Structures are given as C-alpha cells and as structure tokens.
Amino acid sequence: MLDTYCERAGAAGLLAEPINLITNAAFVIAAVFAAPRLAAAPQFGLRNSWDLGLLNLLLGAIGIGSALWHSFATGWAVLADVIPITLFINLYLISFGWRVLRLRPLALAGLWLSYQMLSIWQHGFPRSVSTSKATPPQRSCHSSSCADRLPKHSVLGQPMIKASSVPPLRAAVAGLC
Length: 177
Fold this sequence. Notes:
Blueprint: H1 18-40, H2 46-72, H3 75-99, H4 105-123, E1 154-155, E2 158-159, H5 168-174
Antiparallel strand pairs: 1-2
C-alpha cells in the first residue's frame, strides 16, 4: 500500500480516506448532471462537440479513479487517479484553445507543446509508478507535528511547499494534520 496521506484512517478500503471519498463524489455527480444537458443542446451534437462529451466522461472517470486511489492506495489505483486527470487537462487545454481562443491547428499545437514543456520543466519527467522496487514515502503524520515534514521556509509564518516536491493533494492535506 502506498500510504502518503494524513487522512488515511487505517487499512485500505472504501473508508480509508473518508473525506477524499466524499469529495470525489462531486466529480461523478457533476458528470451525471452535465450529460443530459449536453445531449439535449442542439448545438452540442456528437459531431460538433465530441470534445465536450469526452471531457464530461473524463470528469466522471476522475471521480471514480480518485476514489479508487484514496480507498486502496496501490500502484494500479494511482494510475486510475492520474490518467483521467492528465487526459482531462490536456483535452481541456486543446478544447479551450480551439473553442474559446479560436486558435488555428498550428497555434494550438504550439500552445499544447508549450504546456508540455512547462510541465516537464516544473515537475520533471514522470517517474515510474511501479512499487516493486520503490519504497513508499515515509508517513510522518504520527509524529508530534506534521510541520516536521514541511520545508523550513515560510512566508508570514506559513510554511511554503514547493509545488514540484509535494503532490498538490498532499500539500492541501498537510494543513489538516
């Protein structure tokens, strides 16, 4: 089990991280409510709006995948979490560039490549999610203070967390410990 969050209540299962499980339901509910509205709008047929339909499917997949990750915390569950999120971000960027910014294909490709380059520059190349050789990060929520694992830098007394060194959800949960 990859045990990296303070909220983990114990063994893997649906109630291992109850707050994360509940908040993931919002993604699924949003996708369920958006689907009939998207299908009923005449300007949003499959031929004209395949991207919006796919974004909606990915929205539901984000909720399900994230619930799996926060429930079971295994290598396959982290893939169920990050793959839909990554696909959603990339498709949203392309869809926004095409529909809102009205970019031509070459400019759209430039926007997408720029995003990829900035992402790699900020976060580095993706690491393997295989847990066979890697040891899971140490869980320090049982220490006297969760602040022990945060960088010593601070702004107005608040610890700063370098985005490239701590996953965003872990950073958000760190304040709850």
